[in-house]
Amino acid sequence: MTEEESTVYLLHFDQPYRHARHYQGWAADLERRLAEHRAGGQAAARLMQVIHAEGIGCTLARTWRGTRGRERQLKVQGGASRRCPVCIAVRDASRPSGRRQRRTP
């Protein structure tokens, strides 16, 4: 798989770790990379090692086709919770109408 055919992914933590609620990454082989993260070994990102050591689980919340450049673009934009379907569902369910509210100018 070439870099152009790779996957950008967003992991949602089952519970926050300090300020972190998500991890965003890039992988040519998504299944292998997720297994590395979940194992919490040296091949995992440092944050994922800490999450594993704390006993916090995670869910693959969303994927995009894209390169490392796309991953960087999304990270720089910030706002992972705005792109996370898990967070959106929880936020919408907590609203009285159960629907997303429109922003007013």
3D architecture notes:
The protein is of the alpha+beta class and 105 residues long. The chain has one domain (3-93). It contains five helices and three strands, in the order ββααβααα. The chain has helices at residues 30-39, 46-53, 68-77, 80-83, 85-93; strands spanning 7-17, 20-27, 58-65. A three-stranded antiparallel β-sheet has the order 2-1-3, sandwiched between helices. Strand 1 (7-17) and strand 2 (20-27) form a beta hairpin. The longest helix is centred in the first third of the chain and has 10 residues, at 30-39. It is globular. The mean pLDDT is 88.
Identify the strand order in the major beta sheet: 2-1-3
**Describe the biggest sheet?**
3 strands, antiparallel
Q: Separation of termini?
A: 44 Å
Shape: globular
Number of domain modules: 1
In round numbers, the mean pLDDT is: 88
Radius of gyration: 15 Å
Structural class by helix and strand composition: alpha+beta
| Fraction of residues in β-strands | 25-35%
Number of helices: 5
Number of strands: 3
- Poorly predicted regions are none
Order of helices and strands: EEHHEHHH
Helix content: 25-40%
Which descriptors would you attach to this protein?
single chain; 105 residues; alpha+beta; 3-stranded antiparallel sheet; 5 helices
Layout of SSEs?
Elements: E1 7-17, E2 20-27, H1 30-39, H2 46-53, E3 58-65, H3 68-77, H4 80-83, H5 85-93
Antiparallel strand pairs: 1-2, 1-3
